[in-house]
Write the structure tokens for this entry.
Amino acid sequence: QVQLVESGGGLVQPGGSLRLSCAASRSIYRMGWYRQAPGKQRELVAALTDGGSTNYADSVKGRFTISRDNAKNTVYLQMNSLKPEDTAVYYCNGWTGAHDYWGQGTQVTVSW
């Protein structure tokens, strides 16, 4: 089993920034972030392997940056130039290559 503990969500104005963190209980091959807005399917935001390969949703390219600290088994999502359409519950995901694990989710709200 792998536990994922997220932090860093909140309310921010359009154009603002937030940083999400997710700490895993052990090393995982790929860690990333998904989000789910009300009435929509969960979608990939960004993912990063322990070798450094990244994958971003087109909607966040140039605004969000994913990084990880392998020594701390922690992944970060730096979100800049936030838009109201970024509002969603953000879920940390860990994939071992055989199993998916999920965090509890953290709310990000972009609004005036």
About this structure: The mean pLDDT is 96.
